[in-house]
Amino acid sequence: MTGTEFFAGQRSVKTPSGDIHYIERGSGPVALFVHGVLLNSYLWRHQLAELGDLRRCIAVDLMAHGNTEISVTQDVSVTANAHMLAQFLDALDIDQADLVGNDSGGGICQIFAALYPKRVRSLVLTNCDAHDNWPPEAFQGFVGMVAGGGLAGTLAAMLADKSVYRSPQALASAYERPEAVSDDTIETYLRPHVRSPQRTRDLERFVDAFDCRHTVEIEIPLRLVRAPTLIAWGTDDVYFDLKWSHWLQEAIPGTRRRVEFKGGRIFFPEERWSEFNQEVRAHWAAASEG
């Protein structure tokens, strides 16, 4: 499915945080999918295509990402994005959701679960920021580049020559098979960030706001989250070491299962979508049984 095909059915809803854009497929209890930095709801295309028989699957574009529209003064920190998810659910009259997160989106899901535990029916966390590993050491170079004013040039370079995106200097380490990432996928993820100078600035603000205090501060309430939780982790991730899957398993009392994807990297839900979807199906089924 191309990016154009995926976003053909995109909707938006007004919230106090802005006009939040999203895609939904299927019917039943709501499952909310949350992507990470640089990407958008397209990350979850395989989940929306395959899991709609079990859930009303909704993939949201975070603030400063995708087609979501925000004001120039809108707080775009990860905690602000967690509050946005609550506003988003309110706007759609949704009380509870099965939450699924990846990368910084997984960190945002942890914050949401800690602040709004009654709204989480179940939780799935894949390779993501946790506790004081935000941003991870391997991502510090990117954070420094953004702080130094290099984001616009970097985005332009990756869009002009897609091989730059797939290179070891950029996103190669995020994929098991970076050579298989299509030009269309790269366009779909990055083009929204350069539609205007303000959109690029919003992404800068999102990255500049990275601070582990957001997840450190919610450790105590996170340790009270009893929603059935699946920890699914790629084992070959330079950003989020396997030890963080163990940390989350120990920290979240609702954890039912921790599963490893051998050789998987941060974006394994996109690359190994079939295997991942099987785990999510099994988790949802077990959670429904109580």
Features:
290 residues; alpha/beta; Rossmann fold; 8-stranded mixed beta sheet; 14 helices; 8 strands; 40% helix; globular
Layout of helices and strands, plus pairs?
Blueprint: H1 3-7, E1 11-15, E2 18-25, E3 30-34, H2 45-50, E4 56-60, H3 78-91, E5 97-103, H4 104-115, E6 120-128, H5 140-147, H6 151-160, H7 162-165, H8 183-190, H9 197-208, H10 213-216, H11 219-222, E7 229-234, H12 243-251, E8 255-261, H13 268-271, H14 273-289
Parallel strand pairs: 3-4, 3-5, 5-6, 6-7, 7-8
Antiparallel strand pairs: 1-2, 2-4
Explained architecture:
The chain is α/β, with parallel strands linked by helices. It has a single domain (3-289), classed as Alpha/Beta hydrolase fold, catalytic domain (Rossmann fold), CATH 3.40.50. Helix content is 40%, strand content 18%. It has 14 helices and eight strands. It has helices at residues 3-7, 45-50, 78-91, 104-115, 140-147, 151-160, 162-165, 183-190, 197-208, 213-216, 219-222, 243-251, 268-271, 273-289; strands at residues 11-15, 18-25, 30-34, 56-60, 97-103, 120-128, 229-234, 255-261. Strands 1-2-4-3-5-6-7-8 form an eight-stranded mixed beta sheet, with helices on both faces. Helix 12 (243-251) links the parallel strand 7 and strand 8 (255-261). The protein is globular, with a radius of gyration of 17 Å. The model has no long low-confidence stretch (mean pLDDT 97).
